[in-house]
């Protein structure tokens, strides 16, 4: 299954500027992770729980603000962008540098999350 | 660049000019059109335009598409001769308002420079939007995506010692979705535009916009046609924007000096009531996130917001240096041109009607039977504004009722703008193009929902 997930995630990891991609199930367990280089992997300190908690906090934030369903979380640093998107039972996290095309990044994160949910959603729960 | 431009204006002054300026604009642009999922065209281009303007009793102007020193100096000769000949035939010499010289360089801000984004990435975004729209319903029969981005590098140099460089980005996506069921055809239109880089395509969420336009087009197939006649009418932010833009154009001193022209209705009306007290109209080329942003206008003057109409009263026109002299006013950075081949004139950039503190619900609560109009499909502007809207709703006893197909309506600025009852507390903006020759000015109009006591609607 990991190879199958990798083939779906390639749509996202092939985007210029993307340094890390992590796939979680709805419990926040890491199912798959990819890092462009060993250095990116060493720098990466986030756990699956960190990613899920961030998504959940924002979900609640939107709800308390009077909004509806949270689609994604976008965090912009000076040099990096982090995106978290949930589709069904799949959570996808992408971490990029500023060279990434943000519009295309959001489209591909969404596409990968939807494709993973469609293909592996049940198996990841 | 600076040295060459300075030598050009110096030469104009040596010839005997009272004033001279030179403008250069290098525009890097990309346009992509995708219709029904197929690429119709992609045009990457770099356009170089330049012009010299010389004042000697009247204006002499010469434009060119080169910035070689020889060509520029030749253009100076032509412009000077034109001014000299023209000056013999005018009753009164042209004068310009004095301004302080400025030296500045305005660079691109924190944006994703569209020149650095590969064309295939831009196309992938549009393909995804197109796919999303067409997958909404089998009755979606046509999708049309027009994407364009540009980065303008502008240079201005004057004989008074101003030298300004400014880089301005612009990104735009126009979307048309058509649904069809039998003989019924329905079209929806969306526009995303800002003086921004490729990040606009992320923040404006064109995917979501595409899906919504497709859903609306399908929904409208079964909607009733709007009734014809005079009704209380509430218009959405985009339609308010269209009215703001049209009214804003009439506040240009350029048109006020031509009372016979279609946009000359505000001639001689300074200090007078020109519309309802509910309307305060501003032109602001400096506000971040708007479709048009510049720090300096085409005459090298720092741009600032101007309230042309306050509570229905025409307080000021927007000016060039020439019209400012005529009206004894201050030029405040609103002279524009589609590119350096055109002479600058005072034209609005982002014409904005000010919001109130009234919620949308409060705006419609006393409407017993009226129409709520949304979205601009097509329009002609002037003293008479004709607009075809995308869709509408009935308003019954202060509540939004059944959806209606688009309607046409006419606003006669000299009468109907006095019929504006109230405006709401929200805001949105409609990016538009003001065509001149084969070029256009990016412009926008914006504001809150707006209520007319009565407006003539055609089905």
Q: Largest interface by residue count?
A: A-B, 11 and 14 residues
Estimated radius of gyration of chain B: 24 Å
Structure classification of chain B: alpha+beta
Mean pLDDT of chain A, to the nearest integer, reads 90
Number of helical segments of chain B? 9
- Side-by-side strand order of the widest sheet of chain A: 2-1-5-4-3
Major β-sheet of chain A, in short? Answer: 5 strands, antiparallel
What structural category do the secondary elements of chain A indicate? alpha+beta
Number of self-contained structural domains of chain A: 1
Q: Which overall shape of chain A is indicated by the principal axes computed on the Cα atoms?
A: globular
The residue ranges of chain A in which pLDDT falls below 50 over 5 or more consecutive positions are none
Task: Provide structural commentary.
The complex is a heterodimer of chains A (125) and B (459). With 125 residues, chain A is α+β, with helices and mostly antiparallel strands. Chain A has one domain (2-124): 2-Layer Sandwich (Beta-Lactamase), CATH 3.30.450. Chain A has helices spanning 2-13, 38-43, 48-64, 102-124, and strands at residues 18-25, 30-35, 72-76, 80-87, 90-97. In chain A, helix 1 runs antiparallel to helix 4. In chain A, 37% of the residues are buried. Chain B has 459 residues and is an alpha+beta fold. Chain B has two domains: 2-221, 2-Layer Sandwich (PmbA/TldD fold); 229-458, no CATH class. Chain B has helices spanning 2-15, 69-87, 119-134, 200-203, 206-221, 237-250, 253-256, 321-327, 360-364, and strands spanning 19-35, 38-56, 58-64, 103-106, 140-158, 163-181, 184-194, 229-235, 281-283, 306-310, 313-314, 335-336, 345-346, 350-353, 369-380, 384-396, 399-405, 408-412, 420-423, 428-436, 439-447, 450-458. In chain B, a hairpin with a 2-residue loop joins strand 16 (384-396) and strand 17. In chain B, helix 1 (2-15) packs parallel to helix 2 and helix 3 packs parallel to helix 5 (206-221). Chain A binds chain B through residues 16, 74, 101-107, 110-111, and chain B through 112, 117, 121, 124-125, 128, 198-202, 205-207.
């Amino acid at each position: 299954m990991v190879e199958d997930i990798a083939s779906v995630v390639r749509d996202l990891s092939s985007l210029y500027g993307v340094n890390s991609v992590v796939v979680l199930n709805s419990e926040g367990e890491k199912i798959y992770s990819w890092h462009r280089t060993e250095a990116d992997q060493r720098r990466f300190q986030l756990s699956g729980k960190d990613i899920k908690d961030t998504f959940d906090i924002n979900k609640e934030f939107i709800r308390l603000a009077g909004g509806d369903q949270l689609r994604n979380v976008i965090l912009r640093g000076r040099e990096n962008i982090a995106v978290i998107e949930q589709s069904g039972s799949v959570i996808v996290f992408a971490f990029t540098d500023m060279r990434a095309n943000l519009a295309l990044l959001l489209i591909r994160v969404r596409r990968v999350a939807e494709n993973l949910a469609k293909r592996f959603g049940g198996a990841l729960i | 660049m600076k040295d060459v431009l300075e030598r050009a204006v110096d030469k104009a002054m040596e010839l005997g000019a009272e004033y001279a300026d030179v403008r250069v604009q290098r525009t890097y642009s990309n346009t992509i059109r995708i219709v029904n999922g197929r690429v119709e065209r992609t045009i990457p281009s770099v356009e170089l335009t330049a012009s010299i303007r010389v004042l000697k009793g009247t204006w002499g102007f010469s434009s060119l598409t080169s910035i070689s020193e020889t060509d520029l100096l030749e253009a100076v000769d032509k412009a000077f001769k034109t001014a000299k000949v023209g000056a013999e035939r005018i009753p009164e010499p042209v004068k310009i308002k004095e301004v302080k010289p400025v030296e500045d360089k305005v660079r691109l801000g924190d944006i994703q420079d569209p020149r650095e984004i590969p064309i295939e990435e831009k196309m992938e975004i549009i393909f995804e939007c197109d796919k999303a729209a067409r997958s909404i319903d089998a009755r979606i029969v046509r999708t049309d995506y027009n994407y364009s981005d540009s980065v303008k590098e502008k240079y201005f140099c004057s004989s008074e010692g101003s030298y300004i460089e400014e880089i301005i980005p612009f990104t735009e996506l126009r979307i048309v979705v058509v649904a069809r069921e039998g003989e019924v055809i329905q079209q929806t239109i969306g526009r995303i535009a800002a003086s921004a880089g490729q990040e606009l395509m992320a923040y404006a969420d064109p995917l979501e916009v595409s899906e919504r336009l497709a859903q609306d087009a399908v929904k409208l197939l079964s909607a009733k046609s709007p009734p014809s006649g005079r009704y209380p009418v509430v218009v959405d932010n985009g339609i308010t924007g269209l009215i703001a833009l049209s009214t804003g154009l009439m506040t240009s001193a350029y048109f006020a000096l031509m009372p016979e022209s279609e946009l000359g209705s505000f001639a001689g009306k300074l200090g007078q009531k020109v519309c309802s007290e509910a309307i305060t109209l501003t032109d602001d080329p400096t506000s971040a996130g708007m479709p048009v942003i510049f720090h300096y206008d085409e005459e090298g003057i720092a741009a600032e917001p101007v309230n042309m109409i306050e509570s229905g009263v025409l307080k000021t026109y927007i000016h060039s240096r020439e019209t400012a002299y005529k009206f004894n006013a201050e030029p405040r950075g609103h002279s524009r041109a589609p590119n350096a081949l055109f002479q600058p004139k005072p034209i609005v950039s982002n014409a904005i009607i000010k919001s109130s503190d009234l919620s949308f619900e409060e705006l419609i609560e006393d409407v017993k039977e009226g129409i709520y109009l949304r979205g601009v499909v097509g329009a002609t502007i002037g003293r008479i504004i004709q607009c075809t809207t995308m869709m509408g709703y009935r308003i019954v006893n202060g509540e939004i009722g059944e959806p209606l197909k688009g309607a046409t309506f006419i606003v006669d600025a000299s009468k109907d703008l006095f019929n504006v009852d109230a405006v709401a507390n929200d805001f949105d903006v409609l990016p538009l193009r003001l065509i001149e020759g084969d070029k256009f000015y990016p412009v926008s109009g914006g504001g809150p929902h707006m209520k007319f006591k009565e407006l003539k609607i055609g089905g």
